[in-house]
Amino acid sequence: MRVRIAGALAEARCSHTMFAVIKTGGKQYLVSPSDKIRIEKLAGEPGSKIIFDKVLLTADDTKTAIGNPYLSGVVVEGEILKQARDRKKIVFKYHSKTRYRKTKGHRQYFTEVKITKI
């Protein structure tokens, strides 16, 4: 598995003292303490705590730890801010020369999380 995040790591290292790469909902997120992220819907009420245990990488000013694939004993803690639905995405099907047109919309559920501790 090859990962190219050197540019993102350099930018994050300049602006934050500590950051981590976590995996949730089939996606990877670069997070720092006090960041707000939108992730795939997770169970939980607003105000409740959530723990991300699939941590791929952590780094601060002095050291960097890379997991194979995950780091053991490292967790990222967050607080659920809200459960909501995203803006509507329009799906439009069209066949030329046959007057076939079909429009459909979809609103994806998401969870907004504030990272509290790495």
UniProtKB/TrEMBL annotation:
Gene Ontology BP terms: translation
Top-level taxon: Bacteria
A GO CC term assigned to this protein in UniProt: cytoplasm
Keyword DNA-binding: no
Keywords: Ribonucleoprotein, Ribosomal protein, RNA-binding, rRNA-binding
GO molecular function annotations of the record: rRNA binding; structural constituent of ribosome
RNA-binding keyword on record: yes
InterPro entries recorded: bL21-like, bL21-like_sf, Ribosomal_bL21
Described function: This protein binds to 23S rRNA in the presence of protein L20.
Stored NCBIfam families: L21 (TIGR00061)
Subunit note: Part of the 50S ribosomal subunit. Contacts protein L20.
Protein family per UniProt: Belongs to the bacterial ribosomal protein bL21 family.
Name assigned to this protein: Large ribosomal subunit protein bL21
Gene assigned in the entry: rplU
